[in-house]
Amino acid sequence: MRRFVSLCLAAVLASAIEPPRFPHQPTGNGTKLLTYNITTGNPGELSASTTSVTWVKSDQDGDFITNDDDGSLIFENVVTGDTTTFLSADKIPTDYYAYQISPDRARILWAVNYTKQYRHSYFADYLVQDVATGETESLIADSKGDIQYATWNPTSSSEIAFVRGNDLFIWDEGSISQITDNGGPDLFNAVPDWVYEEEIFGTDSALWYSPDGQYIAFLSFNETGVETFTIPYFMDNQKVAPSYPRELKLRYPKVGTKNPTVALNILDIKEKSLSPVPVDAWPADDLIIGEVAWVTDDHDKLIYRAFNRVQDHEKLVVVDTETQESTITRQRDGSDGWLDNNQAITYIGPVERKSSHRKRGKGKGKGKGKGKGKGKGKGNDSDEDRYYLDMSDVSGWNHLYLFTLDGRSNITLTSGDWEVASILKVDTARELVYYTSTEHHPTERHLYSVSYTTGVKTPLVDPSVPAVWSASFSSEGGYYILRYAGPDVPYQELHTVEDPDKPIRTVTSNARLHAALQEYRLPKITYHDLAHPSGVNLSAMLRLPATFEPTKKYPVLLTPYGGPGAQEVNKAFQPLDWNAYIASDPALEYITLTVDNRGTGYRGRAFRSTVAGNLGELEAQDQIWAAKWLAAEYPDAVDAERIGIWGWSYGGYLTSKVVEEGDSDTIAFGLATAPVADWRLYDSMYTERYMKTPELNPEGYNRSAVAKVDGFRSLRGSFLVQHGTGDDNVHFQNAAALGDLLMGGGVGPDRLEVTFFTDSDHSIRYNGQNAFVYKQLSERLWEEKRRGVAEEHQWSKKGLMVPKPWEV
Ligand SMILES: *[C@@H]1O[C@H](CO)[C@@H](O)[C@H](O)[C@H]1NC(C)=O
Ligand SMILES: *[C@@H]1O[C@H](CO)[C@@H](O)[C@H](O)[C@H]1NC(C)=O
Ligand SMILES: *[C@@H]1O[C@H](CO)[C@@H](O)[C@H](O)[C@H]1NC(C)=O
Ligand SMILES: *[C@@H]1O[C@H](CO)[C@@H](O)[C@H](O)[C@H]1NC(C)=O
Ligand SMILES: *[C@@H]1O[C@H](CO)[C@@H](O)[C@H](O)[C@H]1NC(C)=O
Ligand SMILES: *[C@@H]1O[C@H](CO)[C@@H](O)[C@H](O)[C@H]1NC(C)=O
Ligand SMILES: *[C@@H]1O[C@H](CO)[C@@H](O)[C@H](O)[C@H]1NC(C)=O
Ligand SMILES: *[C@@H]1O[C@H](CO)[C@@H](O)[C@H](O)[C@H]1NC(C)=O
């Protein structure tokens, strides 16, 4: 009944986009099958495209910058459609990686000569260009592709803050002031070290300009005593291997070892005076700063979030810029699990609450003037009147709240047995917060606004239709590009907030992809809530082969990620990738099943917390339980002797734990790509959040390590480990240790294969090695499918060797 209703609504909703979308993954309506080449070998033709616009602040809301066909930068207004050339193609540096437009739009800061570092960080040279004349100058004359970060002052087109050699500098119309001079291998100023970049901030900088541009708050990381992990690069991008590998000496704190210490500094830019902020929320060796945000319209106050080392307690501390006086404004004991670092703090200012039925006119007509400027001219509001937005899962579900700076009161903006997934825009003029949430289902994302003055919550899309939505809002919040991300073929539309139901125009239709898919016979994807005996539901995504016939038997591949707080099963359009390939090629025809085990995200705090202190156990049990569920649910279709599991990173770890469980009647083979093998080998800040320290939880660390070989020895099929030797994240050491455990433990070459990938990092892409990864996985699935089957295969018919699809 429910399903029928949904379909009707979908038809209405979808009337905007042509052809209409349906609330399920596309099935195709033709006969072609997906090939190795189009999904994996040379992918791209069947990918959904997304237009990402960079909104610019200007006199008119709705201006954004985009690339014209010839490469020039264009300003376009979404209302009028007027375009003006901002910078013609001939003036654009040829090898640029990124750019930032100055606040007055008269200049551009270009990053050129890019060299990747870690996940977010990179080295580059920077150019400052005058838009009117096209003239460029180097940010600094002597840079050698070694600048780590650079950004405009948000209020001045004369000033850039940048980091080089781990020191902070200010560029002011070409004159450069060095702010710190202690930067070096042991001290990082204003940029994160490896572990803060990867696990805490997820970005390449650790500096924050005050809204008025007069101050910079930044963190410094002292690596003294942090142990060094050495990574050898055997080829080091050369054709011929150097006699001695280049060695990267990486400050990388492993579980239980010394962490970097962190210090907070405030720079008064005009005075060039630096004030350290004394931090005593936790002792220096027990402190992680997870978030820093200005909570002001100018520069008088900032807030930071201080976690203890194992991130199960937090204190939010408000700092007075002038006096550096610090006040703990909120704190929380989260030792029933762990505390996530959502980095959601956004300053709002004074809030005048109105009851929801005393609704005033929409939008701007509030007589309050522009939201942003308030506070500044109005004198100094006290801390009990000034609010900031933050997320918290203290209720058991992640929700939005406003908190006063003094910490005495809060306003609940959202509540219920569901979670806010992302904050998309805070519009202080209209007094609205736009967010996506799982209100309809953990695997879905619908877009809403909530007014922080009236509390009124308004959906911007039809919440009854299963879908994943997101949006990008213009700088003044009047317009947004709404993205339908699935389950059907994605599209984007431009809307005005005045009339969310009527799109102004389609931005991306993906019509060509939609048409191309009609010619295919695609695997059939369905979603399930698996009722687990522990009383929770596990989200599952089942992909049946394109040529599925209920009377035929098919091998199965479980494809989990499974890490704490992560989500793999959602209703976004599923890319037509290798997973789709193995469900399509008649030579393989695998069923795939992806299940989000306990510990994963978006099902509330209790669901996440079950794995605290004990990674790997419930997750593995849940995967095995799900495999049994599938075999029971589809007894005729599932070849119960050929259920395997493949995962990457945490998924590779989980694959190993599943095999270690030793239920060889259920799980026949495992493929572990870049796995963690023992949490003691991984970094402190991720691992201890979930496991605490080995000192506090020695048994937990023993249990969570892959340590028992019997399960590997008793596999019907085989176990494959793939790992890059240059993996700076999950070190090759994990595969080395796992290989030693298994070979030493008597797992024979008939069962075990360990493949290294020279110089590759965690994504395994060095020198085209990604192709080998998928060819090897395909080969393995093919062998598992034929294991124990005597019949001659088509490829070896009459002794004629026909190449397999992944060999072409
Ligand atoms: C599928 O194709 C057939 C004819 O090839 C057509 O009649 C039918 O309307 C199509 N269905 C959809 C859902 O496009
Ligand atoms: C492989 O894919 C590419 C890109 O889609 C295409 O140009 C090429 O013809 C394909 N090759 C084969 C052998 O199908
Ligand atoms: C580009 O960067 C490299 C370091 O990655 C440096 O050696 C080289 O000098 C830079 N080139 C220019 C033109 O700055
Ligand atoms: C870094 O830490 C070491 C050891 O605690 C200390 O001796 C040194 O002074 C610190 N460096 C800075 C710049 O604070
Ligand atoms: C606000 O505070 C600043 C300094 O913090 C002070 O100079 C100013 O007079 C204050 N304004 C009002 C209206 O109290
Ligand atoms: C809001 O304040 C109340 C009363 O002090 C407190 O119990 C509650 O936990 C606070 N909410 C959050 C999300 O911190
Ligand atoms: C589990 O999922 C079913 C079907 O979606 C739903 O009716 C039920 O309320 C869910 N139970 C829990 C505990 O979430
Ligand atoms: C952990 O395992 C090691 C090695 O097997 C053993 O020596 C130690 O006693 C174990 N510790 C705990 C707390 O189980």
From TrEMBL:
> Which InterPro entries does this UniProt record tie to the protein?
AB_hydrolase_fold, Peptidase_S9_cat, Peptidase_S9B_N, Serine_Prot_S9B/DPPIV
Give the SUPFAM superfamilies listed for this entry.
alpha/beta-Hydrolases (SSF53474), DPP6 N-terminal domain-like (SSF82171)
Superkingdom of source: Eukaryota
Q: Which reaction does it catalyse?
A: Release of an N-terminal dipeptide, Xaa-Yaa-|-Zaa-, from a polypeptide, preferentially when Yaa is Pro, provided Zaa is neither Pro nor hydroxyproline
Q: List every stretch annotated Disordered.
A: 349-385
Report the Gene3D superfamilies cross-referenced here. alpha/beta hydrolase, Dipeptidylpeptidase IV, N-terminal domain
- Residues covered by the Dipeptidylpeptidase IV N-terminal domain: 102-491
Mention any one GO cellular component term assigned to this protein in its UniProt record.
plasma membrane
Domain Peptidase S9 prolyl oligopeptidase catalytic, by residue range, is: 577-775
Residues of the signal peptide: 1-16
This entry's Gene Ontology molecular function terms read:
aminopeptidase activity; dipeptidyl-peptidase activity; serine-type peptidase activity
Topology in the lipid bilayer is annotated as: Single-pass type II membrane protein
Task: From the Swiss-Prot or TrEMBL record, state where the protein is found.
Answer: Secreted; Vacuole membrane
Keywords, in A-Z order: Aminopeptidase, Glycoprotein, Hydrolase, Protease, Secreted, Serine protease, Signal, Vacuole
Instruction: Establish whether keyword Ribonucleoprotein is in the entry.
Output: no
- Tell me its EC number(s), please: 3.4.14.5
Compositionally biased tracts (Basic residues): 355-377
The reply on keyword Glycoprotein is yes
Q: Which GO terms describe its biological process?
A: proteolysis
Task: Write out the function statement from the record.
Answer: Type IV dipeptidyl-peptidase which removes N-terminal dipeptides sequentially from polypeptides having unsubstituted N-termini provided that the penultimate residue is proline.
Q: Which family does it belong to?
A: Belongs to the peptidase S9B family.
Quote the protein name from its UniProt record: Probable dipeptidyl-aminopeptidase B
